Automatic annotation (TrEMBL):
Protein name: PadR family transcriptional regulator
Transcription regulator PadR N-terminal domain span: 10-83
Superkingdom of origin organism: Bacteria
Coiled coil segments of this chain: none
Family matches, as SUPFAM superfamilies: Winged helix' DNA-binding domain (SSF46785)
InterPro entries tied to this protein: Metal_resp_DNA-bind_regulator, Tscrpt_reg_PadR_N, WH-like_DNA-bd_sf, WH_DNA-bd_sf
Pfam families, A to Z: PadR
Length: 111
């Protein structure tokens, strides 16, 4: 299953353990070196889709300063999909490195 960059980073953030929405947002920023900044609407839309696919699930709630804070965790299937996508991207990156840095090419005429 191919994941969008945002979904990939959300799943990667959840490898650190159950996390609430704001924690996921800050982890995604850190993991992406501040290149991906999720808004709340984008994050919760992604969590809904990932939940529908069985990749994440709710992991409890707590009340903090009078507001509900829901925690999410990676499922076993989510871990497997994340691992497979990581392998796919690593193979693609390896191919790109080889194509961009081909090394010496044989000279015409066998020289």
């Amino acid at each position: 299953m191919k994941l969008s960059e945002q979904s990939y980073l959300v799943l990667l953030a959840l490898t650190e353990g159950p996390t609430h929405g704001y924690g996921i947002i800050t982890s995604v920023r850190r993991l992406s070196e501040d290149k991906v900044k999720l808004g709340a609407g984008t994050l919760y839309g992604a969590l809904d889709r990932l939940g529908d696919q069985g990749l994440v699930e709710a992991a409890g709630e707590e009340v903090v300063n009078g507001r509900n804070r829901r925690y999410y965790r990676l499922t076993g299937q989510g871990h497997a999909v994340l691992a497979a996508e990581t392998e796919r991207m690593a193979r693609l990156a390896d191919l790109a490195h080889r194509l961009l840095n081909p090394g010496p090419r044989p000279q015409p005429g066998g020289a």
